[in-house]
Amino acid sequence: MSLISQLLGEETLDPFLSMVNKCPVLSTPTDWKETPQAHVFVADLPGMKKEDVKVEVDEDRVLQISGERNVEKDDDSGKDIWHRVERCRGKFLRRFSLPDDAKADGIKASMENGVLTVTVPKQELKKPEKKVIQIEGN
């Protein structure tokens, strides 16, 4: 049972929220762990290829994972009859604000068996230096 359905009760959910909770592509479940060397994001994108996914970092240090699962096309005969459509299709977008120790220019991404792994290396933060201020006066 999803967190939303636990909070609101299954009967109070609108159909869209119910679909998002059941559709891994629309909700894009993503884990974020921090190791001593990096921040690692792991997203489940079942049935997707790396060509369908985009990983970006903007100037505000926001990691963005996006993509689209396209609708399966019928053959040209026009004789296909769909009896049930349950697999999720559509666009997805997840955004994560990177912490100050993230080294945005060293990010690497890989995808295997529908699992995207984005590794953001860490950099050592400079500690603010103390500056001694001379006190003027008598």
TrEMBL record:
Matching InterPro entries: A-crystallin/Hsp20_dom, HSP20-like_chaperone, Small_HSP
Domain of life: Eukaryota
Residue span(s) of domain SHSP: 21-138
CDD domains from the UniProt entry: ACD_ScHsp26_like
Assigned keywords, A-Z: Stress response
Protein family: Belongs to the small heat shock protein (HSP20) family.
Protein name stated in the entry: SHSP domain-containing protein
